[in-house]
Amino acid sequence: MSMELTDLPYPASALQPHLSERAVALQHDQHQRACVEIVQARTAGTEWEDAALERIVHESQGTLFEAAAQAWNQQFQWQCLRTRGGGEPQGRLAERVKRHFGDTARLRQAFNEAALGLFGAGWAWLVQHPDGSLAIQVTRNAGTPLTGLSTPLLGCNLWEHAYYLDYQNDRARYLDAWWQMVDWEFAAAQLAL
């Protein structure tokens, strides 16, 4: 079976004080692991048994899609964050942020408004459309830009389990902390030419 739970790119304590070790472990070791195990169980003995997670997301439906998309979203999310993250984007990404949002502060404001506007569980994304423009996208539940034409640059988990331990029901405080962990270099590396 090629589908395995990926390791975190840093220790579970690396995102403190913005996201506690306990909250990271809950998301990774319980929620993401559960999604991976569902994918493993549902693809065993099928054409997807050795398929890449991205292929399963693109080609599946129902509970297999939900589990595969959540596993992919969570895996992507960990790469979007880093110890001593935050700050401002640089280079080409900074130019595109300026062109499409005016500046990073306005990007954050628009992103936060979209994230706070989502009722229930889901994800907020900074994406690049095929024409090169940047946009904010919000998806419900396991929705992911991976199934569309846009390239995800950053993904923010808006499921309650992502922030409840550290921020209870205060999604706004969680978003403020999330921006302190953003890995702009990773986001820039996702840009299409």
UniProtKB/TrEMBL annotation:
It catalyses: 2 superoxide + 2 H(+) = H2O2 + O2. It holds the Pfam family Sod_Fe_N. Its EC number is 1.15.1.1. The keyword Mitochondrion does not apply. GO terms for molecular function: metal ion binding; superoxide dismutase activity. Mn(2+) binds at residue 161. Residues 4-81 form the Manganese/iron superoxide dismutase N-terminal domain. Keywords: Metal-binding, Oxidoreductase. Residues 89-189 form the Manganese/iron superoxide dismutase C-terminal domain. It comes from the Bacteria. Belongs to the iron/manganese superoxide dismutase family. Destroys radicals which are normally produced within the cells and which are toxic to biological systems. This is Superoxide dismutase. It comes from Stenotrophomonas tumulicola.
